[in-house]
């Protein structure tokens, strides 16, 4: 029963990850390092499989069937290996993004305001993050000034040194002072970078997949050993 409940919890947790509540998937997708989500899909399968196998194990013990218990143990080992792969995959690819803010900056400068499909997707994501989190760029507004970018190719620095989504707004999301924002007055432009929010989002996903999955693996291990013990005594 504990393994069945843990399997359902893993199933629910990883569905939350694949739903991308923080809406940061475009960053991982464009970089080609979206295996955090691949790990989540594997964990969805594993969570449901752990639940089903828990039922199978109960039936096998209730009937005292060695062949059925053997099938249960073999399937448990297979699911155990897949869940281990899910934990490792998610954690290693999380490091690629979280430990490398320059990658996120380069990606933002290359795709924000670009006319391509990926550019439109990244632009919508960055606009939403900068609006909701009241931040600007990866590390701050100077990201747009100190580097060449697709945004700069479309908008001269005199007219828009950074996207106007970086401007401070009132509770109704109306820009407080667009001219003050344009000239960089600290009272009218958000000086905080958005990388901290992105880092927290990816970390939340990884903790849900990797560490919660690892805890369930630790629970599954004695369950399998107990099943092996019962197999030898039948």
UniProtKB/TrEMBL annotation:
<dbReference type="GO" id="GO:0016020">
    <property type="term" value="C:membrane"/>
</dbReference>
<keyword id="KW-0325">Glycoprotein</keyword>
<comment type="function">
    <text>Component of the asymmetric unit membrane (AUM); a highly specialized biomembrane elaborated by terminally differentiated urothelial cells. May play an important role in normal bladder epithelial physiology, possibly in regulating membrane permeability of superficial umbrella cells or in stabilizing the apical membrane through AUM/cytoskeletal interactions.</text>
</comment>
<keyword id="KW-1133">Transmembrane helix</keyword>
<feature type="transmembrane region" description="Helical">
    <location>
        <begin position="38"/>
        <end position="62"/>
    </location>
</feature>
<keyword id="KW-0812">Transmembrane</keyword>
<dbReference type="InterPro" id="IPR008952">
    <property type="entry name" value="Tetraspanin_EC2_sf"/>
</dbReference>
<comment type="similarity">
    <text>Belongs to the tetraspanin (TM4SF) family.</text>
</comment>
<dbReference type="Pfam" id="PF00335">
    <property type="entry name" value="Tetraspanin"/>
</dbReference>
<keyword id="KW-0472">Membrane</keyword>
<dbReference type="InterPro" id="IPR018499">
    <property type="entry name" value="Tetraspanin/Peripherin"/>
</dbReference>
<feature type="transmembrane region" description="Helical">
    <location>
        <begin position="209"/>
        <end position="231"/>
    </location>
</feature>
<feature type="transmembrane region" description="Helical">
    <location>
        <begin position="69"/>
        <end position="91"/>
    </location>
</feature>
<keyword id="KW-1015">Disulfide bond</keyword>
<protein>
    <recommendedName>
        <fullName>Uroplakin-1a</fullName>
    </recommendedName>
</protein>
């Amino acid at each position: 029963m504990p393994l069945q409940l843990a399997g359902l919890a893993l199933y629910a947790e990883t569905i939350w990850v694949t739903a991308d509540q923080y809406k940061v998937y475009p960053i991982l997708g464009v970089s080609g390092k979206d295996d955090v989500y691949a790990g989540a899909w594997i964990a969805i399968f594993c969570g449901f499989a752990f639940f089903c196998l828990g039922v199978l194990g109960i039936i096998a013990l209730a009937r005292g069937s060695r062949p059925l218990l053997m099938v249960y143990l073999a399937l448990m080992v297979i699911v155990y290996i897949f869940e281990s792969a899910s934990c490792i995959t998610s954690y290693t690819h999380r490091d690629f993004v979280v430990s490398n803010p320059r990658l996120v900056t380069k990606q933002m400068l290359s795709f924000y305001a670009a006319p391509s499909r990926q550019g439109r997707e990244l632009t919508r994501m960055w606009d939403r993050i900068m609006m909701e989190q009241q931040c600007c760029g990866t590390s701050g507004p100077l990201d747009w000034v100190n580097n060449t970018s697709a945004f700069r190719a479309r908008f001269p620095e005199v007219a828009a040194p950074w996207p106007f989504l970086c401007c401070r707004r009132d509770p109704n999301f109306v820009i407080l002072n667009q001219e003050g924002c344009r000239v960089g007055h600290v009272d009218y432009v958000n000086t905080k970078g958005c990388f901290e929010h992105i880092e927290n989002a990816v970390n939340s996903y990884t903790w849900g997949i990797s560490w919660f999955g690892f805890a369930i693996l630790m629970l599954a291990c004695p369950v399998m050993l107990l099943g092996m013990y019962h197999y030898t005594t039948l």
